[in-house]
Design a protein that fits this description.
Layout lengths: L2 E4 L2 E8 L3 E6 L6 H7 L6 E6 L15 H14 L5 E6 L1 H12 L4 E7 L10 H16 L2 H5 L2 H9 L1 H6 L7 H5 L2 H5 L9 H4 L6 E5 L8 H10 L4 E4 L7 H18 L3
Parallel strand pairs: 3-4, 3-5, 5-6, 6-7, 7-8
Antiparallel strand pairs: 1-2, 2-4
Helix pairs in contact: 2-3, 4-6
Length: 262
């Protein structure tokens, strides 16, 4: 994949198609395979699929703030000679999309926010604690460190699917190499205040479902209420029907891109 250097780090990305630029950002612990698998090419659209800092083939340092991840998006856009673009993301990618829009409002023309895991607060404390325990376990490459942690036991009782899914990160060499992202990112505030969101005047579509505990449907409602003129839609649950989930996301992406002033 193509790469560029920023902050002394090498970043990797993939481009699909040609035309108007749309940046699509993956979630925490994932890489651009997640977004490439989901995205259905649209004629006249250049979809830019980065590996975010400390994910996939992109390097990281100690700075894993969501603001810094937003800066990375802008530096990639500059590298590609892109002035203005639409953006969207899944979970952490949605948080970085909002941060990019708020920090660089003259650059972003529209947003697609998929399965948000934050609003104006950190993730719920039980998930913050779970990801912190995961980071500790990855540093030792020892699943038992996670399995025996109080945080894992707590989440297992309330959201067993999320708790069990943490063990998949032990199969990812990048998660083992950069485990601190799991301790850092869930406890951040990607949106400092819901009042900030009232400044957003571009087309925004927010997507959620009711079956996903860590990506609460209620977060979508909160963001929809705060962002004037935004749209909010329920989509299929990925675990129950991935084909319909992908179809829903791509359908609303086409709606968003049709609304953008280019």
């Amino acid at each position: 994949m193509p790469q560029f250097v920023h902050d002394g780090l090498s970043f990797s990305y993939k481009i699909v198609g040609e035309g108007y630029p749309f940046f699509l950002l993956h979630g925490l612990g994932n890489n651009n395979l997640q977004t490439r698998d989901m995205y259905q090419p649209i004629e006249g659209i250049m979809c830019v699929l980065p590996d975010q800092r400390g994910h996939g083939e992109s390097e990281a340092d100690e700075d894993m703030s969501i603001d810094t991840l937003a800066d990375d998006v802008i530096r990639l856009a500059d590298h590609l000679g892109i002035d203005r673009f639409a953006i969207g993301g899944i979970s952490m990618g949605a948080a970085v999309s909002v941060a990019t829009c708020l920090k660089y409002p003259d650059r972003v023309t529209g947003m697609l926010l998929i399965r948000n895991a934050w609003c104006d607060r950190t993730m719920p404390q039980m998930y913050v604690d779970l990801f912190s325990a995961l980071a500790d376990a990855l540093k030792e490459n020892d699943r038992d460190v996670l399995l025996k942690s109080p945080a894992y036991e707590t989440v297992l009782k309330q959201d067993s699917e999320t708790a069990v899914s943490m063990f998949s990160f032990f199969e990812d060499q990048i998660s083992l190499k950069y485990p601190d992202k799991f301790a850092s990112i869930p406890g951040q505030h990607p949106i400092r205040s819901l009042e900030e969101l009232k400044k957003i005047k571009i087309p925004v579509i927010i997507l959620a479902n009711r079956q996903d505990e860590i990506h609460s449907y209620h977060y979508g409602e909160i963001l929809h209420d705060a962002i004037g003129g935004s749209e909010f839609h329920e989509i299929a649950c990925k675990k129950e029907n991935k084909e319909q989930y992908d179809s829903d996301i791509n359908r609303y992406l086409r709606v968003l891109l049709a609304e953008i002033e280019r």
